[in-house]
Amino acid sequence: MKSRFLLSILIAALLIVGYSGGQPTAAAEQVTITYAIWDNNQLPAHEQIIAAFEAENPDIKVEPQVVPWGNYWDKLQTAVAGGEAYDVFWMNGPSFPVYASKGVLMNIQPMIDADKLDLSVYPESLVNLYSYEKNVYGLPKDFDTIGLYYNKDMFDAAGVKYPDANWTWDDLRTAAKALTKDGNWGFAATLEDQPNYWNMIYQNGGQVIAPDGSKVLLDEPAACDAIKFNYSFVADGTSPDGATMASLDPSTQLFPGGRVAMITSGSWMARTYADADANIGVAPLPMGKQRATIIHGLSNVIWSGTKHKDEAWKFLKFLGSEKAALILAQSGTVIPAYTGLQQAWVDSIPKMDLKIFIDELEYAVPYPTAAKGMEWNAKVNEVLTEVWNGNVSIDEACKQAADAANAVLSAN
Question: What is the pLDDT of residues 160-202, one digit of tens each?
């Protein structure tokens, strides 16, 4: 009996301290990695994703950091320069070539090959978007198209029929005039490029930039006429002017607050508008000479200087998994890039016809980019802002904007 009692004590002691090859083993040390995103609306879904990942990888803790879009790139550049960047972070198409070419991003092709990761679960266009010199640097996260959001209560009060797939630019103009009353506006003709006037340029048969990214084409008639169409709403008072939209954000204040009846914006705003107090619906973009919508998508990338390469790769793979994509889809925040889960996103907000964003893929055009980054577009925005503020003639703006942008592209 005594020998059995002593044996029991010995076994219990070994279980407490751990035993391996005659040496006690300590519990694995937990590693913390950081994950930077810029959309607070997506934080709850990503907290769920992180919780699921940590449950499978208890030795890795992920610390999410939300950096608002307005500060995201400046903070990222500062962090990279200081040698303390985020381990994993969001990347967009326009910025990718710059960061990849400067060695900021980790080449994940070797890990993809070693783990035999199947990239066919993502749209090929997105895989190509985040590839540099035939190597993949980011796993696609989501994609987005643009729709026309509208306030149903304002339409009902004005006796105007809701927008539908048959709407044209003329219908948009007619409705905007009927809905502009009582100090409110029918349409927000914003200067947001991807959510607004870029779509109009392609709908009018124009191009923002040459396919090879070498030259901005806003001074060509088709592009310039589309910009003039957008400005016409400001000119006739059916849209807030530049000063008003600078002080009261049309996407987050004027439209959901019931001051604007219609606004063009991305699929990423569906959850925000569905949860707003206003009664909001969505329709396909009105057609110009042809149908068109800008398509874009984000990826998750790893900082090349991370001290936790293996842990960051494990997390990146999980972010690109079906499990993570399903959580994103069911949150209603973004359309997941993972094939087969788009319907789950459509079903996530049944009171909105989110299928319109998927149907628009048929005529989607790629997000305009240049290898030198997006400084050219900042120059365009500077010129157009002066137009919307009434300081520059719309007739002069297209050439000024193109000249300013092309000066950036032609500089060494």
Answer: 999 999 999 999 999 999 999 999 999 999 999 999 999 999 9
Give dist(CA 113, CA 109) in Å, integer. Answer: 6
Token pair listed for 28 = 């694995």
Q: Tell me the CATH class for 146-295+359-410.
A: alpha beta
pLDDT one-digit tens code per residue, 62-93 = 999 999 998 999 999 999 999 999 999 999 99
What is the reported pTM?
Answer: 0.86
Give CA–CA dist 146/267, Å, rounded.
6
Owner of token pair 């991003």 = 105
Residues in CB range of 182: below 8 A, 6 or more apart:
none
Of 118-132, 311-325, 386-400, where does the model show the most confidence?
311-325
- For residue 412, the model assigns a pLDDT of 61
Work out the number of other CB atoms within 10 angstroms of the CB of residue 300: 25
Could you tell me if 228 and 384 are in contact, meaning their C-beta atoms sit under 8 angstroms apart?
no
Name the residue among 104, 106, 107, 97 with its Cα closest to residue 82. 104
Cβ–Cβ contacts within 10 Å for residue 58, how many? Answer: 10
Question: C-alpha distances in angstroms, 306 versus 31, 83, 105, 246?
Answer: 12, 9, 10, 38
Q: Where are the alpha helices (DSSP H) in 159-220?
A: 169-179, 198-203
d(CA 180, CA 404): 35
Helix (H, G, I), strand (E, B) or coil at 339: coil
Residue 276 buriedness (CB in 10 A; 0-12 / 13-18 / 19+): middle
- Residues carrying CATH 3.40.190.10, the chain: 31-143+296-340, 146-295+359-410
Do 162 and 262 touch, CB atoms closer than 8 A?
Answer: no
Q: For the chain, how long is the longest CA-to-CA vector?
A: 101
pLDDT digits (tens, 9 = 90+) for 27-65: 468 999 999 999 999 999 999 999 999 999 999 999 999
Q: Does the pLDDT of residue 3 top 50, yes or no?
A: no
DSSP for 15-63 reads HHH--BTTB--PPPPPEEEEEEES-GGGHHHHHHHHHHHHHH-TTEEEE
Q: Does domain 31-143+296-340 have CATH number 3.20.20.70?
A: no
